[in-house]
Amino acid sequence: xxxxxxxFNVNALGIILFLFSILVGLFVTxxxxxxxxxxxxxxxxxxxSFGYAVGVLFNKIIVEFRHxxxxxxxxxxxxxxxxxxxxxxxxxxxxxxxxxxTSALGGLIGSIIGYYFGESAGRKKEDKKQVIExxxxxxxxxxxxGAGGAGDIEEVGDIL
Length: 160
Prior knowledge:
By secondary structure, this protein is mostly helical. The protein folds into 2 domains: about 1-45; about 65-140, no CATH class. It has 5 helices and no strands. It has helices spanning about 1-10, 10-35, 50-85, 90-140, 150-160. The chain is flat.
């Protein structure tokens, strides 16, 4: 039993890289099967041509790249923090490593979080604007026969 533990202790990095490469290989194979409509993806609506597959691939890379990049940076930050926590012999060495990691990558993480929260706030603002425009159109349809006096303007002001 000790020999197995020693083997894993000595070869841990190689084992982790091997398992990671298997996962990446499975992911890429699954994406290729989906792209070309093979296997369980036969019934999906695809053109089946190589040009179509390449076009879809580049489209997905462009659309999903910012999410992938954000995920990679966050994982890099988490990995660097974990390494900083286990590196160093003394507490002051660990604190120096943590300060170096957070000062180097902390602003980048803040930018990513700000981007995603800003994007969701922008979507909410657009949705609210569409609701307001819809209400204005409804009021306009209801008051189509009327004079449309100052009371209509106050009601729209209350919505805003």
